[in-house]
Amino acid sequence: MNYEHYIQGYCHIRNNHISLNGDFVYKSDDAPFSEFIKAAYKHLEIDYSKFFKMDNLSKLAFLTAEVLLKDETEKNIGLVLSNKAASLDTDRKHQESIKNYPSPAVFVYTLPNICLGEISIKHQLHSENSFFVFDKFNAESLHTYANSLLAENKSEKVLCGWVNFDNEKYDAFLYVVAKKGTFVHSIAEINRLY
């Protein structure tokens, strides 16, 4: 069987800039990530108090997903995210904290897939989810996994992409795959949009 799926929408967060489907959403000049992400959260008028307790990777993934899923009503959305650094940024903070007294609030974020939980809680998703660590952005794996979830009717839509945070360097590219959309869901198209 040949299943054809589409990219319904995509979002980038890089270099203090947020775009949705290639259109500017928010920009902040030369602010450190912590200031940029809080200002973007306020600008987008998101109301989710747990946001301020999250680690940087979760904040980045959560905000990127929020831009894409803001008006989404579907609850059977699979999540397939990836990055290079896993949760290394938070792992370093946890390692530092155990010199004095380990912080449970930091420890809880020492797995990269915790950001999937944050997105799922906010959007009440009870669906398949996976987090992969690759050396670089891997469109082929994301394409294959998303198509599999849709073809096997495990998800109605799939939120997938790349969300990496390490030493104040960050890059997020998430997109929603569905049965209808603007762009054909192909490896070439995913790489082009990335």
Instruction: Supply Rg.
Output: 16 Å
Poorly predicted runs are none
Q: Given the structure, what is the number of helices?
A: 7
Largest sheet, if any? Answer: 8 strands, mixed
Q: Give the strand tally.
A: 8
Broad shape = globular
- Helix coverage percent: 25-40%
* Proportion in β-strands: 25-35%
CATH superfamily, called what? Answer: Thiolase/Chalcone synthase
CATH topology: Peroxisomal Thiolase, Chain A, domain 1
What is the CATH top level name?
Alpha Beta
**Average pLDDT:** 91
Kindly report how far apart the N and C termini lie. Answer: 28 Å
Please give the CATH architecture.
3-Layer(aba) Sandwich
The sequence of SSEs as H and E is EEEHHEHHHEHEEEH
**Total domains:** 1
Structural class: alpha+beta
Account of the protein in words:
There is one protein chain. With 194 residues, the chain is an alpha+beta fold. The protein has one domain (6-193): Thiolase/Chalcone synthase (Peroxisomal Thiolase, Chain A, domain 1). Helix content is 36%, strand content 27%. It is built from seven helices and eight strands, in the order βββααβαααβαβββα. The protein has helices at 33-43, 56-69, 88-97, 104-107, 114-123, 139-151, 187-193; strands spanning 6-14, 17-20, 23-27, 77-83, 129-133, 157-166, 169-178, 183-184. Strands 1, 2, 3, 4, 5, 6, 7 and 8 form an eight-stranded mixed β-sheet that branches. Helix 2 packs parallel to helix 5 (114-123). The longest helix has 14 residues, at 56-69. The radius of gyration is 16 Å and the shape is globular. The two termini are 28 Å apart. The mean pLDDT is 91.
